[in-house]
Amino acid sequence: MPLFDVYPLYDVTPVSGKDIYVYDEQGTEYLDLYGGHAVISIGHAHPNYVEAITNQVSKLGFYSNAVQNPIQQELADKIESLSGCKGYNLFLCNSGAEANENALKLASFKTGKSRVIAFKNSFHGRTSAAVAATDNPNIIAPINAQQKVTILELNDILGVKAELEKGDVCAVIVEFIQGVGGLDEGSSDFFEQVFALCQKNNTFFIADEVQSGYGRSGKFFAFQHYNVTPDIISIAKGMGNGFPIGGILIHPDIEAKYGMLGTTFGGNHLACAAGLAVLNTIEEGHLIDNVNAMSAYFIEKARAMPEIKKIKGRGLMLGLEFDFEVGALRKKLIYEYNIFTGGSSNKKLLRILPPLTIQKEHIDQFFNALKNAVDI
Questions:
Q1: For residues 61 and 268, what is the distance between their CA atoms, to the nearest angstrom?
Q2: Which 3 state secondary structure label does DSSP give 161?
Q3: How many CB atoms lie within 10 A of CB 6?
Q4: Average pLDDT over residues 305-319
Q5: Were 207 and a residue from 67, 84, 96, 230 both cysteine, which residue would form a disulfide, CB within 3.0 to 4.6 Å?
Q6: 248 lies in the same domain as 189
């Protein structure tokens, strides 16, 4: 049976990984500066992670949410401790799209309204409401297009105000650093005014931290660079270091009701063990401190390259913008220099999303290769 052909594939077959490197079937070593879409947060095959999953699966990998699962509470307490989001409640699911889907659903339940405001170049997932709130018509099927979504420009505060005052908006969903869209950010004033307008108009303010969360921006969450308090925070990618897990943090003012949200696999024992291993490693390894130190070093190196026209993003969620499309450059980096990088909807942007364990020698390796690769 053939695989459904929806992914353009590079001719590389990773079979193993260790920290910031992956290895193909011939044993060729690749420097991984993409982390599988920012999923690999603590490095490939981290010993703490491997041990935690191995121990848990040898005891109990899964049972449903109809029974007590103390590991869920342990995970929730650890997220609260490390993130500083005191008093929030945790609902666990399986992916970023599912997290955003539940965030939007909860906002609609609680406000009694149905329209969503999202922003140009946004990406929130590929499920029903999440994909409708994504600014990419190519991945929105007619069944998704039935959702009521208004896409506005970042920093268009007058547009946000006018739409909210119509009274039918249940949620404004924000990526504080856009991922697939190309690392664009709104201004501090914009985000803080949007938050205030949401409070005034009985509208939920949703922080999509699926890619930017878990220390990647230099703080535990990217919204913490601003003076805002989201009603709901969606999380996924770096949360499980490759194990499928996602969730939403829900403000304590939002009351739960039996049956309001649900999931079969979300919050299973194995996923929670993976999630705890990630958090413990971030804490014990002081990885957020490392993010900030390595980000400063990376940016210093990037500024020394005249070919780079703009540096975008924060922490280890970075983009290097050139005055040419980077598709050929990405292929050259993979096939000639054995380095994985990412692209975005901005075809001139090279996206950098390495494991949070990256060190200066890895950054040096990348920039040595990049200098040679762009010297055509």
A1: 7
A2: helix
A3: 5
A4: 97
A5: 230
A6: yes
96: which 2 tokens?
A: 């970023």
Go through 360-373 and write b for each residue having 16 or more CB atoms within 10 A of its CB, e for each that does not.
Answer: eebbebbeebbeeb
DSSP letter (8 states) at residue 17: E
pLDDT of 255 > 80? The answer is yes
Query: What six digits make up the tokens of 241?
Result: 């270091």
Distance CA 14, CA 47 (A): 19
Percentage with pLDDT > 90 across the chain: 99
Task: Indicate whether 183 and 118 sit together in one domain.
Answer: yes
pLDDT at 376: 52
d(CA 105, CA 125): 14
E strand map for 107-153: 115-119, 149-152
The encoded tokens of residue 328 equal 């050929």
Q: Alpha-carbon distance 268 to 260, whole Å?
A: 19
Q: What are the C-alpha distances in Å from 152 to residues 120, 126, 159, 180, 298?
A: 6, 19, 7, 17, 32
- What is the residue range of 349's domain? 14-46+286-374
pLDDT in tens, 138-147: 999 999 999 9
DSSP states of 247-272 as a string? EEEE-TTSPP-TTSS--SSTT-HHHH
Q: What CATH number has the domain bearing residue 355?
A: 3.90.1150.10
pLDDT band at 271 (very low <50, low <70, confident <90, very high): very high
216-246 residue pLDDT tens: 999 999 999 999 999 999 999 999 999 999 9
Total domains, the chain: 2
Residues 118-143 pLDDT 10s: 999 999 999 999 999 999 999 999 99
> Does residue 368 share a domain with residue 244?
no
